[in-house]
């Protein structure tokens, strides 16, 4: 039983939103008690982002619903960004608009304003003192003059939290955190969760979106689950276990969720990387065999994404050789990757792989239109049938194949990219944070599909911050630190904690 005040800090009542043809939210109602961390959960496409965007005044709700914040009631269809702020809603979105190359002071001032001297110049001294107080208030270990990139990842997110709450000394606002831990390794996530808990203990109410069930159970005092736009569960977190939550999110019994058999490794080499150098990569060598799933674990800045992009030919290489199935491979650009059977699902899909204005069908077909071309006509019927097949296989939640990719939820966009890559029947599939933003049920589906391809000889190289997942779905994990592989461990002999430890402390120059 909580000893905190019981008045709801936030109450959402009968909020609905239909996009052309899609009922994203239907009469969603729930309340959050003041001073609590309340988790908002749901599978991909269940309506979480839509609800957050309505609260933020970015999407307009359909008429009829209301939002009450600390006793102030507003019709949900009247919320604007200004009004949301006025009634006490604060947001840290998935991409919180932090600039890593700027100092902490500059990052805070960027959104909250620069203190001015009476002559109109920037009052740097006052600004630094103000930022110092803010850092102390949120117990962030940083100096105002430090570059943001020098802070540990969880503290960087806390800077975004602190600046969102700077003007709220009394803890009256409700902070909405959209997947704050998605890009963080587990130990950093745990650190951030602890900071969130401290923040709630000072009175702030936190609405927190995450796909990671364990952390939701660790940090939240109450939860709401959305499924297909409908609120299916709101309750105290106490007494709730992982299976019950997964059941509520997925809507079926949690069989097979996460039980993906590890791929078996064959002996034949597929990708051989020798003395690769370039950018943050300093002399990396390794071999991935046919039908093997190789994980790469490293901290931000370790060169993990650059290594994948170098193999794909999208990051300049200074020296080193790559062979694919014994043949030389130049890796000069993505088209040579395509010719050599190397495919990449990038980390930043919006910037790198997804054509958001184009339809799901077009996104699936890109690069493979030849398959549907006959001497005198283009087989639109076959193209459509193939799209429908992929949509079903990957359980992509879309109204139709012609729906623009932009209107799919993040997780569903990711599934489309993965489906597209697998269509090209690659020999090597490079995955950069493939399950970021992917719900618990869809993860299992994706790995089940991948393991079918792996059983037929596909080689998969995965970079992931989710070390638990790496330990579960890979055959081997390469530990990358400072641009070097410092350890190469069989996945069955490590768990997430061991990988975390290795990422921080593996002896330099171990194996490479
Ligand atoms: N601008 C839009 N136009 C049309 N449909 C949309 C739009 N935005 C969202 N939708 C649809 O509304 C539904 C809910 O999507 P939403 O992005 O809210 O899901 P989500 O729970 O945040 O998913 P994820 O976990 O994958 O981010 C989905 O079916 C999505 O395709």
UniProtKB/TrEMBL annotation:
InterPro entries: AAA+_ATPase, ABC_carbohydrate_import_ATPase, ABC_transporter-like_ATP-bd, ABC_transporter-like_CS, P-loop_NTPase
Classification lineage: Bacteria, Bacillati, Actinomycetota, Actinomycetes, Pseudonocardiales
Superkingdom of the source species: Bacteria
ABC transporter domain boundaries: 10-253, 265-507
Pfam families: ABC_tran (PF00005)
UniProt entry keywords in alphabetical sequence: ATP-binding, Nucleotide-binding, Repeat, Transport
Name of the protein in question: Sugar ABC transporter ATP-binding protein
Gene Ontology MF terms in the entry: ATP binding
TM annotation in the entry: none
CDD domains assigned: ABC_Carb_Monos_I, ABC_Carb_Monos_II
């Amino acid at each position: 039983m909580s000893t905190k005040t019981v008045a709801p800090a936030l109450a959402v009542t009968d909020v609905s939103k239909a996009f052309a043809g899609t009922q994203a939210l239907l009469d969603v109602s729930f309340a959050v008690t003041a001073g609590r961390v309340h988790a908002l959960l749901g599978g991909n496409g269940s309506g979480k982002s839509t609800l957050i965007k309505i609260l933020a005044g970015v999407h307009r709700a359909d008429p009829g619903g209301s939002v009450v914040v600390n006793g102030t009631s507003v019709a949900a269809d009247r919320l604007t960004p200004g009004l949301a702020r006025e009634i006490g809603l604060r947001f840290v979105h998935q991409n919180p608009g932090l600039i890593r190359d700027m100092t902490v002071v500059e990052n805070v001032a960027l959104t909250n304003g620069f203190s001015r001297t009476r002559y109109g110049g920037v009052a740097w001294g006052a600004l630094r003192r103000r930022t110092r107080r803010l850092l102390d208030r949120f117990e962030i270990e940083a100096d105002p003059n430090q570059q943001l990139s020098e802070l540990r990842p969880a503290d960087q997110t806390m800077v975004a939290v602190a600046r969102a709450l700077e003007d709220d000394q009394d803890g009256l606002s409700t902070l909405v955190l959209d997947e704050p831990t998605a890009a963080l390794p587990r130990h950093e996530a745990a650190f951030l969760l602890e900071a969130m808990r401290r923040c709630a203990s000072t009175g702030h109410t936190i609405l927190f979106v995450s796909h990671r069930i364990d952390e939701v159970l660790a940090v939240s005092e109450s939860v709401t689950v959305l499924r297909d736009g409908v609120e299916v569960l709101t309750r105290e977190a106490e007494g709730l276990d992982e299976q019950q939550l997964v059941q509520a999110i997925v809507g079926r019994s949690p069989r097979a969720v996460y039980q993906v058999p590890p791929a078996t490794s064959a002996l034949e080499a597929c990708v051989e990387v020798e003395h690769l150098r370039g950018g943050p990569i300093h002399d990396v060598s390794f071999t991935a065999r046919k039908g093997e799933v190789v994980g790469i674990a490293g901290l931000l800045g370790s060169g993990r994404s650059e290594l994948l992009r170098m193999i794909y030919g999208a990051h300049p290489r200074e020296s080193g050789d790559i062979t694919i199935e014994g043949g030389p491979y130049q890796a000069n650009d993505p088209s040579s990757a395509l010719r050599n059977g190397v495919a990449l699902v990038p980390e930043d899909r919006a910037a790198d792989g997804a054509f958001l204005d184009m339809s799901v069908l077009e996104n699936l077909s890109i690069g493979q239109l030849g398959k549907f071309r006959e001497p005198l006509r283009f087989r639109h019927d076959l193209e459509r049938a193939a799209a429908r097949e992929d949509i079903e296989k990957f359980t992509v939640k879309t109204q139709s194949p012609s729906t623009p990719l932009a209107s799919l939820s993040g997780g569903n966009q990711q599934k489309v990219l993965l489906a597209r890559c697998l269509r090209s029947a690659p020999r090597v599939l490079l995955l950069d944070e493939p399950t970021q933003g992917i719900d618990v049920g869809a993860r299992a589906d994706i790995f089940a599909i991948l393991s079918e391809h792996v059983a037929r000889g596909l080689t998969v190289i995965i970079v992931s911050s989710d070390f638990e997942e790496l330990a579960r779905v890979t055959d081997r994990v390469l530990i990358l630190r400072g641009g070097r592989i410092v350890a190469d461990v069989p996945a069955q002999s490590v768990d997430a904690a061991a990988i975390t430890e290795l990422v921080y402390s593996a002896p330099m120059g171990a194996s490479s």
